[in-house]
Amino acid sequence: MKRKVLTVMAVISMFFVSPTSMTAQTGDPVVLDPTIIDPTDPLNPPHKTPIQIPSVELDGHTLYFNTLCDGYELRIVDGNAGVVYSLIIPLGCTQVVLPSTLVGEYELQLITGNLMFYGTIEL
User: Fold this and answer.
1) Which of 118, 35, 105, 33 is CA-nearest to residue 74?
2) For the chain, is the Cβ count within 10 Å smaller at the N or the C terminus?
3) Are strands 56-59 and 73-78 parallel, antiparallel or unpaired?
4) Which residues, 6+ apart, have CB-to-CB distance to 70 below 8 Å?
């Protein structure tokens, strides 16, 4: 009887654990700011719901995605040279290893539809 009660309590307690507390912290958080690329684009009207900013962490040259970023375009931009690295994030991807040849300060851009999330990273 005690075993059944403990099992039921364990199952019930699982419902009260927030998903954010289950995320593994693997690197330094990247602070991302949102922007609308073209607010006049009729194919991508402005969002009427709150924007969910992706949660991304950087450890060395590895980017970890704590939220789904499937299909987003990832860009690494150098202020002087422009886009130095770009890829479409594959379905189910939780991490991307950036080229080790990239060294210095860059802007990370994550683009989906008419939204861009950007922040500074140091490689």
Assistant:
1) 118
2) N
3) unpaired
4) 89, 90, 91, 92, 93
SS3 14: helix
pLDDT tens per residue across span 1-43: 444 443 444 433 333 333 333 345 578 999 999 998 876 666 6
Q: Which two tokens stand for residue 32?
A: 């991302």
Residue 54 has φ and ψ, to the nearest 5°, of -60, 150
Token pair, residue 57, equals: 């962490």
- Locate the DSSP E strands across 2-104: 28-30, 33-36, 56-59, 62-65, 73-78, 82-88, 95-97
Average pLDDT over residues 85-99: 95
